[in-house]
Amino acid sequence: MNEQSIIREHLTFTGRVQGVGFRYRAKHAADSVGVTGWVTNEWDGSVVMEAQGTAEQINRVLKMINQSPYIQISWIDRKPLPKEQHEKGFHIR
């Protein structure tokens, strides 16, 4: 994997995203495709995730999350972030 192709994104998900296994599905998906970062629930009912990998890997994680019949994402706000140089793994916060 080319270091230049690695990106990091801050993603905010709204919809039916809490209480439906979103964070555990996100962790499983990220671990399975090699994406690092973290995911957490917010007080307003949204879920925030920071994901680092190639654009293709991050999009695969999003597709895997969206395959759950319980999760209904109505909106994703995506913003680029600087890369974290020494991050290991994907964590639920």
Total number of helices: 2
Order of helices and strands: EHEEHEE
The proportion of residues in beta strands is: 35-45%
Low-confidence stretches: none
Task: State the helical fraction.
Answer: 25-40%
Arithmetic mean of pLDDT: 96
Number of strands: 5
Q: What is Rg? A: 12 Å
The major pleated sheet works out as:
5 strands, mixed
The rounded distance between the terminal residues' Cα atoms is 27 Å
Strands ordered across the widest β-sheet: 4-1-3-2-5
Structural class of the secondary structure composition?
Answer: alpha+beta
* C-alpha geometry: globular
For the structure shown, list the relevant keywords:
alpha+beta, 5-stranded mixed beta sheet, 5 strands, 26% helix, globular
Question: Brief description of this entry?
Answer:
The chain is an alpha+beta fold and 93 residues long. It is 26% helix and 41% strand.
